[in-house]
User: Fold this.
Amino acid sequence: MRKAEVIRQTSETKIQLALTIDGTGQQTIKTKIGFLDHMLELFVRHGRFDLALTCDGDVEVDAHHTTEDIAIALGRAFSESLGERRGIIRYGSMLLPMDEALVMTSVDISGRGMAVVELDIPSEKIGQQFDTELVEEFFIAFARELGATIHLHQIAGKNSHHIVEACFKGFGRALGEAIAVNQQAPDEIPSTKGTIK
Assistant:
């Protein structure tokens, strides 16, 4: 099974996580930020990953360090789980509706970390702790650590919660598709260069 455990500790956060990417969507997530917990639960469920994650972060300051550091640790766990990327599909995409919101998500596990996030989120904050500008920070950190190109483009949407929810659900689906094993070429590295990492 493809899985990894990551411990990341800084002066701002202490993170411990265990990830199984060939899972069923089971999760235990405790970040001290309710909205972030909810988004990660959706990501895991729709990607069918199993995740146990705890984070003790400086949420008394704000949610920035916790959100970014979790993305770093999670991206690292996916990277370790995938090893040399042998046999993966590599690409995944999802056009996901969430009520009035519609977001297109695409992923290329290319070895090059980049996130293009084009969202028009009306409110500056969701819940009491989560600044909506942290959505982009999460995906930038995740992309950099995994070595993936991630595109998130909002096509429609007026409700901030719905827009962000569509991002995390769509990302789970797109990433799940990208890391799936190509049954026609289960031992190939999907690149003409012969390497992805």
Notes: The two ends are 20 Å apart (CA to CA). Residues 3-179 form a domain with the Ribosomal Protein S5; domain 2 fold (CATH 3.30.230.40). Helices lie at 34-47, 64-82, 134-146, 160-179.
